[in-house]
Write a structure and sequence with these properties.
A: about 325 residues; 4-stranded antiparallel beta sheet; 21 strands; elongated; B: about 425 residues; 5-stranded parallel beta sheet
């Protein structure tokens, strides 16, 4: 395990019901909303092509509402004929979700809204209904496993040394929205308290698996459990239990403190967006490579950080939901 | 792995792997037979089951589509009859909604009759839709995908099946092969007539799959096999940390923990195999059993034997072999399971004479009878014959199903006794 600064890819899986999403080539920053959509309940199947007397292949041509659009009850979805017109109308308020091979349509009521935020500064390299992938440059630390949803916030050191445990008393609401770097161990109490205080995410050398079970349930495994629901975000860097951070890993945290950062839980990576020179780039930690136990913390000359060190103070607030630009396709559907 | 083709022939080197991890979603009809059929296909092909959706699944269309999207399957296996045609078509629509944008797109493997295939094929667009006449063909196709186009790669599960066939052919009896690796657990039964039932469960093993053993079998079930008291958090930490310490030297505790995990991996594999409709009683009564993988590589043969007896719970006289990955096969012992409520006698007959052994209820121990001799057993409701191996004859009168005392004060001494009986408590 070591710090690397290079170009990375981060994919963001999207739930069903996407309304808007960033397009390929768009520039995004970590924390920006890159996709938004609706949470849908049980869908109704409405006969389409059969009702209109059309073949399924012709039905698409007669659709007046784009698939993925929101509709209100009695909206005409498709219509044929002039004098003796036949039409398909929406039976409920909801979303036109899907058109079957037979030319029937599914309409699902909207019960909630969701959004997905970027975890990397960069360019959208892939965008479809299932995933938005971003490619960008950042400092990165590959962890062992991550739990919970993606997190974005200002990187903050929560301990005084790499072998220290993060105490629950050091967590309070003033740290809300930040990613806290713990030391060797992070207890379940810290995780739950941090979540209650609005901490964006937690990073530590090790987390007791029993604590993870308390927070995430008995089905939790050593390979992590990325999720989208409202849960704490935890990144285990070294493994489980207690694992002191090697100096090569811990010291750059001090240099990068205050910078914007993101935890991408699917890949168990911590991205830090800073131009700071953290010195030990590309150099693997000998302690980790040799597979030895936790290394004693030896104070070293603090690496010089660039002017970007104060990045956190100038940090822009994450983009709010209502600021998401409507995609061209949605403008088209609205114009209809 | 080295495969010897004979004492005089040159040794052929080949690459044996578990192959590419293949994620499969199972869509099946409402009948129980259909559920079992797809489960057997998935287990036989060594794929990881990431989603199961029944034709009568209570989930809504959107929920089913979301579940399939989250599962990210490489292959979707479909099985059902004519009655399930409409429901399967609906599930394929859910698959289209959920996975149409997935890259690479999932492939659909269908084991249905021609009429159903013709009816549902259009609904599979834009996915690649392939039909198979038999389950064996589908299993081969799934294994080809796991080989990822590398024909020279020998899949470990295929090799285990070959070993079980060889054992059955040699003994002219049914044979069972049990393989437990870092991330897989296999049970392969070959009957005397050559019919084969195979299940390769992934991920379920002693390294990367160890945490899955705990999740599926529960922590308490793993802990009950340890002959010392340990609290749940400490045990969980050891299990979660196992995959990251491959180079650790085997300590006594590490070996005993590995044995505990292996027992539960085998026991859980048996549960899955039973759910899939395989013949578990036939597996438990196989006259010859081969143990391979990590269980066979335990430092002592008694440890391999103890794991097998506790995990499988044989119900008939059995000869047990073990074959570590880096060594040849050896016959390690003969198991005589006895279920009795009172003191009983069993007769052991061999070429050099006969002897009588008194068996107490819930007793467990070895009878030294000489290395590798043919032994016939009779009495106390058990009858059969086999060959004693390096360890001799293990008489297991603990009863079936094997139940362990709940309280630590009773359970730990009992488990320690069983370890001591097979000299399995030290590395």
């Amino acid at each position: 395990m070591t710090w690397h600064r290079e170009r990375w890819n981060a994919d963001h899986s999207l739930p069903i019901g996407v309304t808007k999403r960033a397009q390929v080539g768009d520039l995004v920053r970590a924390g920006d909303i890159i996709a938004a959509g609706a949470t849908l309940a049980g869908a109704l199947r409405v006969p389409g092509a059969r009702r209109l007397g059309l073949s399924p292949s012709d039905f698409d041509r007669e659709l007046r509402v784009r698939v993925g659009s929101d509709v209100v009850a009695r909206t005409v979805l498709a219509r044929v004929g002039r004098r003796f017109a036949r039409s398909v109308t929406a039976p409920i308020d909801g979303r036109l979700l899907h058109v079957t091979v037979e030319g029937d349509v599914y309409i699902a009521p909207i019960v909630d809204r969701w959004s997905v935020r970027a975890t990397l500064d960069g360019v959208v390299s892939r965008s479809d209904d299932a995933v938005v992938e971003i490619e960008g440059e950042a400092w990165c630390l590959q962890g062992a496993a991550a739990y919970g949803p993606d997190a974005i916030g200002e990187l903050t050191l929560g301990v005084d040394g790499p072998n220290a445990d993060l105490a629950p008393t050091r967590i309070d609401v003033r740290l809300a929205g930040r990613i806290i770097v713990g030391g060797a161990r992070m207890s379940a109490e810290v995780i739950t308290r941090a979540h209650a205080c609005g901490i964006a995410g937690l990073v530590a050398g090790g987390v007791p698996p029993a604590g993870l079970r308390v927070v995430y349930g008995d089905a939790v495994t050593a390979s992590g459990s990325p999720s989208r629901d409202d849960r704490p975000t935890v990144l285990c860097l070294m493994g489980f239990g207690s694992a002191g951070l090697p100096p090569a890993v811990y010291e750059p945290f001090a240099a990068l403190a205050g910078a914007r950062a993101a935890i991408h839980t699917t890949s168990a990576r911590l991205f830090v967006f800073s131009t700071a020179d953290i010195g030990r780039a590309e150099m693997p930690s000998p302690d980790v490579v040799m597979g030895e136990g936790p290394a004693a913390y030896a104070p070293a000359d603090r690496p010089v950080a660039d002017a970007d060190q104060g990045d956190g103070d100038r940090e822009e607030q994450p983009q709010a939901d209502e600021e998401l630009t409507q995609s061209p396709s949605d403008r088209n559907s609205a114009e209809r | 792995m080295t495969i010897s083709t004979g004492t005089k022939s040159p040794v052929e080197q080949t690459t044996v792997t578990l192959g590419r991890s293949l994620r499969v979603a199972l869509l099946h009809g409402r009948e129980e037979a259909s559920r079992r059929a797809v489960a057997q296909l998935a287990l036989a092909s060594g794929t990881e089951i990431v989603a199961r959706v029944r034709a009568t699944d209570p989930r809504s269309f959107v929920e089913a589509a979301q579940a399939l999207r989250d599962a990210k399957p490489d292959v979707v296996i479909i099985q059902g009859g004519a009655k399930d045609q409409a429901a399967l078509a609906e599930l394929l629509e859910a698959l289209r909604l959920g996975c149409a944008a997935q890259r690479p797109a999932p492939r659909i493997f269908a084991l249905v009759d021609d009429g159903v295939a013709q009816a549902i094929r259009p609904r599979a667009d834009p996915f690649q839709f392939e039909t198979f006449a038999t389950g064996i063909e589908m299993v081969e196709a799934l294994r080809d995908l796991r080989r990822a186009g590398n024909e020279s790669t020998e899949l470990r599960d295929a090799l285990i099946e070959d070993a079980a066939r060889a054992l059955a052919a040699t003994n002219r009896t049914a044979a069972l092969a049990i393989d437990v690796t870092e991330r897989s657990t296999s049970l392969v039964l070959v009957r005397a007539d050559g019919r084969l039932e195979a299940a390769h469960l992934v991920p379920l093993g002693l390294g990367m799959g160890a945490d899955h053993v705990v999740v599926r079998a529960s922590l308490d079930n793993v802990r009950r096999w340890l002959p010392w008291p340990i609290d749940a958090p400490a045990l969980l930490e050891r299990v979660f940390s196992r995959p990251r310490r491959p180079g650790d030297l085997p300590t006594t505790e590490a070996v005993l923990l590995e044995m505990a995990l292996a027992r539960e991996a085998i026991a859980h594999a048996l549960r899955d195999v039973a759910e899939a409709g395989h013949d578990v009683p036939a597996m438990r009564s196989a006259p010859a059993i081969l143990v391979t993988g990590r269980v066979a590589s335990l430092p002592k043969p008694g440890q391999s034997l103890l794991v097998l007896v506790d995990g499988l719970e044989p119900t008939a006289v059995t000869t047990v072999f073990r074959e570590p990955d880096d060594g040849g096969a050896e016959r390690i012992g003969m198991v005589v399971p006895v279920t009795t409520r009172k003191s009983a006698k069993i007769r052991l007959v061999r070429a050099s004479g006969r002897s009588t052994v008194r068996v107490e209820p819930r007793s467990f121990g070895l009878v030294q009878i000489g290395d590798d001799v043919d032994v016939a057993v009779n009495g106390a409701g058990i009858r059969g014959h086999g060959r004693s191996g390096e360890l001799g004859v293990l008489i297991d009168a603990r009863g079936r199903p094997l139940s362990l005392p709940e309280r630590d004060g009773e359970r730990i001494p009992a488990v320690a006794r069983w370890h001591a009986a097979l000299d399995a408590a030290t590395p």
